[in-house]
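Here's my example:
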Amino acid sequence: MWCISRSRGTIGGTISPWDNMKQIVLPLLIAVGSIPAIETDTLETLTVTEKITAETSYSRDQGFRYIPMTERRGERNLSELLSSVPGVSVMPTGAAGSYETVSIRGVDGSRVTVCIDGIPATSAMGGPVDLSRFSLDNCEGIEIYRGISPASFGGNSLGGVINLITKSGSGGSRELSVRMGSFSELASYARIGQEIGEVAVRGFVEYRRAENDFPYFDLNGTPYNKTDDSLKNLPNNRLKEFRTTASVSKKVVLGDLNLSWEYRDKTLGIPAVNGLPNKTATTDETEQRLLLKLKQKRNRWNIDHALSGNWNSNRVFWTGIDNFGIVHGTLKSDQWGELKSTTAIADYRTGIRGTFSERFTLAGTASGRFEQMIPITDVPSFGYGEWKSSRLTGNGAADLIWSPGIWNISTGGSIALHRSHTEGGEDPYSGNVLQNQTTIEYDPAGKFGVSLSPREPVSLFLNGALYSRTPSLRELFGYHGAVQPSPDLNRESGQTAEVGVGLTTKNISGELLFFRNHYDNLVSMESDTRSVKAINLGENRSYGLEHSARWTPGEKLTFRESVTFQKTENRSERYKGNFLPNQAPLTIYSDFSVGPFAGFTLTPQIKWQSVLFRDRANKQRYPNEHGALGKFDLSVAAEWKWNWFKVAGSVRNILDSRVHDDSRYSVENGYVNLLYPGLCWNIEIKADF
């Protein structure tokens, strides 16, 4: 993070020896963020930010939130946890395990950088990151940067950054958990940490499944005939997922060395609705991630090195008795179809942060990334082109902060150079021919900010930035023939600005800010129900107000609330004057936690979202009931803890027990029907010893 006003507090955890050097340490913290410390032994695991002790998880220099897992109140997944953050919209597409994406301040998920321990989790194909990939049970906390991107993440993200900080645990720790929920959901995980001499070994194993066979209103394939409609359980919607991670840490001559490995395997059925059968269609995904990190301290400088590799195989399979292939034709009953893609990513980055005088702080990142995408098609009677492509990227970013007195003035910038290559090919189905070619593109970005602490506990800030983005491999060179090549796409560009005020006291903390975003040449995936082509749609604009606060009047009572008021406009010639899809003009969230009393804590949660549109033509209204004023969700979470034993649970969407039947825009198939349940519950039993 790149501009922040000084705040009072003591340095916690591993940086406590610097208490007498605040003029040096505070600017260092400015470079990467100022949010509260959590447990002392946890500080060693945070690879991106150092924390200072405070009673708030807000930044004092920009739209930022840190959510520790200690504030988790019955949320089963990342999208539910992010729903309380102002300016953040989450979009599920089904029940447990289904695809979920996020947008920030009107900018969709394709332009939001999602990271794991500071390493981007973006696929080589581009597109929004699927939030269902991540497990909250293996996280320490979540960082959300709305709009302004720090140099530690590459400094160039049109929509902001969401960073998941994984849990490391301490030597001798043991943790077991079993969770069950509605629609036959079952999840269990085990975590172990052990120190063997100077080596710390940690492991995590998780398994979850769900039938997701909730009831829905089947139209029997005749939407205009109400006489043959009936209530049925949704078939072929089951989820199975297995995940395991292992890590080894040791202090070596060069610094702190950590090696971690993660494996994930997921199978999710693809249901069909409205009387169209889907009995065998599934999507299967296998992913492996290897990460080597080295943390060094050199006087006033912290240097982090990271080398990672990610391999992902994604497969969609269906047979002739399924509906999945109908948009492109019909399979015979004894035939099967398979679309498969393999992506590989190698990523190296070095980050440095520190001070070279008492008033100047520098944070910088140099990184390189290689991405490869290999699609494979095996569908009888279909002539799909397969556009194999790769990209090599080099990136440099830096933030410089000058702190004269109560002011902090910052400037920063980044430059990324992309070499993209495709072997080309021909799609006999559409007749498209893509030539073997190599392109060279670059993405510049710059930013400026100023913050002021005229008097504690108030701070003021003003930030602005210019961003750009080269289209992804899938957008440029197509994918499986269904997504057609568009090698002549222009680079996206955008400007963002925000002005705000922050408040931090012992019992009250919060923020109020105004933001404005303007983006040009945004890439959109346009479908004719048979194929999809990426185009530069035009320009978008969004602006609004965000407010959130936390009040702790007593040790056992905490109130939280957030409000987002925004206007999102599509200013392209084709959709000029329309609102952007999936963006609610007004969202209000509130909760309060009471307890613990004898180990018991109760947290009711309320969220209201105004009517929005699912499509660019502003015709698919949600909620679509005539006269509806919006969507209202009421949830209650409870927790009882006794020594090493904990029981927790939640009931969500209490006032909305019906199943949602939603028509949502899909970049692959135009408009598709999606179902996701209303009333859900879960209960968890956990032992920590």
Remarks:
- The longest helix spans residues 22-32.
- The mean pLDDT is 83.
